[in-house]
Fold:
Amino acid sequence: MKEKVLVLLVVLVNSLSIVAQKASEKFVFTPQWTAHAQFAGYYVAMEKGFYKQAGLDVEIVHPSVSQTAMNRLQNRESQATTLQLCQALEIVDKGVPLVNILQTSMNNGTVIISRRDKDPLKQIGARVGMWYAGFSQVAICMSRKEHLNYQWVRFTSNMDLFLKGAIDGTLAMSYNEYYQLLQMGFTFTENNVYRFSDHGYNIQEDGVYMRRDYYETHKAQAHKFAQASRKGWEWAANHPEETIDIVMKYVRANHIATNRTLQKLMLKEVLRLQIDKKTNKREFRLRPDMVKFASQMMKENQMLNQEVTYKQLIAD
Amino acid sequence: MKNPITYIRQSLSRRLSLMVVLIATIIFVAALGFLFIESRKAVRQEAMDRASEVLDNTVLRVNSLLDRVVIATDNFEWLPVRHLETPDSLLTYTRRIIECNPDLNGCSISFEPNFFKDKGRYFSAYSYNNLEKGIIETEQEGNEQYEYFYMDWYQLAKLLDYPVWTEPFADYNPEAVYTQEIIASYCKPLKDREGKYMGTISSDISLEWLSKMVSSVKPYPNSYSIMIGQSGTFFVHPDSTKLLNETIFTPTLEHPDTALTALGHAMQRGETGMRQLKFEGHDSYVFYKPLGSTGWSVAIVCPESDIFGGYNRLYNIVIGIVVVGLIVMLFVFGRIIHRELLPLHTLAQQAETIASGEFNQTLHVDKRIDEIGKLNQSFSNMQHSLVNYIEELKHTTAMKASIESELKVASDIQMGMIPRVFPPFPDRQDIDLYASMTPAKEVGGDLYDYFVQDERLYFCVGDVSGKGIPASMFMAITCNLFRMIAQQNRAPWEIATQMNTFLTRDNEQSMFVTMFIGLIDLRKGILEFCNCGHNAPILDGKFLETKDTNQPLGLWECKAFKGEVIEDIRDKQLLIYTDGLNEAENMQQERLGDERLLELMADTAHLNSEQIINKLKDAVSRHRAGAEPNDDLTLLCLSLKTL
Structure:
């Protein structure tokens, strides 16, 4: 009898502790960049209560200089983060297994913009800006392949080096820096923009990743988070104006220097990049061919020690 | 509802006043248009001068601050080169720079990665004013979280290889707290004695003072100042939500605006100028000027409503006054002209009354001496003349009626003097005679007569000279004379001689009568005749040739008229007529003529005398074609039948 009571007590205590643990467990999500429409779907899921409806207590924490998204994920400070595919491959290659729980981008949004009315691919040896935070793997691989011999200049977060003529060209995201430059009065011509997606480098970018060890013990949560986030993106695609209202709320809270017009354009472009060119649908899936192509390309350029496979990235 | 054009046309006063106002409007529009265009130019020029002056002063003051920063930085530039062996001393120097230059917010002397072997990867000596504590803080700011050599302020000087001002930026706090303070840095590349790049010296200033100074520039009540960086980003703007968040080009992203884009590019290029465009929803004049070598540009935005506020107010008031004035003018002129023309109106009414038959209508007495007064007077005179004339006319008409009545009686008497019963001799089958006399007026001077006495047919046709009453009276005498003398069984030439003797006596009026006198022996058909200056009769379709010509009766004495004899005229038609037949005229004064007469008389053998005369009368009527008869028309046709 005593044993039975003891067993019951142990079961009860264990159950209570699990309930208590689950109730208090926060799901911290970190987008890889400052607050803007690039992450509209997650803000929508948060604000429209999609996470809450899924039984998740999600907190969105943006990265800082000292706490990048990758750092936060590696340090287990965030349970999920958005990463570009190439970034994810690098992290996995460095020994931190990751799982892609939701792929939002179906197309590559990176571009090279030349300061003059000149094809970036014809400016051999030019000084070209790249983000201090990364995101430049595809560009580096391409420049090597094309023997462009670019002098890469890392910039922090704005286009001042480019505008003042300190660099000849710059990497830019078609949804962000491209519109920033347009807003700065920069004149785009037929020649001065090189879109990777149009030249055989249409490698997927943003997806939601979590550490595989966390995923293994929290599959249900991961699945719920992915589903709610996807719902958020679909809602954003159907309600762009209300989505921008939500984005601007996050933008203001994070003191981001931007404006509604810019965010509107960014959302439109991000949503465009989510549509698969072949199926013309928002598919939310990682493509095995893309993983293989990116992995091989990075391996060839010594960015990876070994190829990372599609299987290594996907959930069971 | 009256048609407005009809309404205007009906009244001279309305038309006149409208014309006056129209002309006045044209003059006003031309004069005021010129005045306003010139005034607007002057106001615009004055505004440009004023705004340019204010802008120049502002830029001058800002530039003096920027120059101080440049000079301060340049003055300390030599220090790092001298003290490379003791990098920590640079911390003190940066502090000293801040102490010596109250304009500066911060100063850093930063070096390339791993420049000092014992300092590791990072060395950036940095001092800044800690406003909260009120002290100057000094530190080495480089670390893994703040890799300064990737910052714009560092790289700009390095890559451009010349001193440069950064774009203003929000001050960044390592604790991830963003402040609203906007700062800008003047950065200069540091080089060693060989000219090799070592690092960057940078001096920071807060744009707070500059922002306040630029913002305070307000040449007009609703004007405002803006400052943009080389990126077009607003660093000074009255709407603080735009600061750092928007650029001058932002509105063009969704709604392309070439004017705004051109302004932005001009400011980015460091140009000085003025542009007129719709700026932030208002028609404005934007005056812009660059700030030294910073790449920044300051602009004063002056809403057009401000610049032209006074002008527009004046414009509206003047236009209002003119419009009201013209309306008043229209009304007043209408009244004045109406009043001035009132006598005309009265006159028109009186004329209508007079026209309706009231000739004795009393006219309004107008003492005016102008044209209207004269018209009134003339009209009054005309009325009197008209009344007199009407009276005369009445009298004349009455007289005429009386004369006409008398003439009618005279006509009846005259017509009673000639035989008018046909057939004239109903019991005689051998005589076919028909005659007709149609006076041109009420009474005429033609005559005919016939009678049978002792188996002899006497007949005559005459035409008294002249027309009307005198001729008719002469005709009456002639008629009576013929019958009286002929009844004495005399030959036609004897009758003529006697008649002439009688008629020439006391003929003071020298009237005369042409006459054809004939006598037919009814048993033998012998025709005796005497033609006293009369038209030749037509016998059997031909003019009757006479050997001797006699004078008309009554002209002068003649002892013996001559006559002729035709042995037998039985079964031949004899037509005797007056010149009212062959000389009948139409509207064009064309006579019927002898030829036409002969044509008419041809083929008339089957017609009796009445039919022939009717045929001739019809021909005359057709020839006249409505023209008034120019002479009396008398016809006598006879034929003696063989039984």
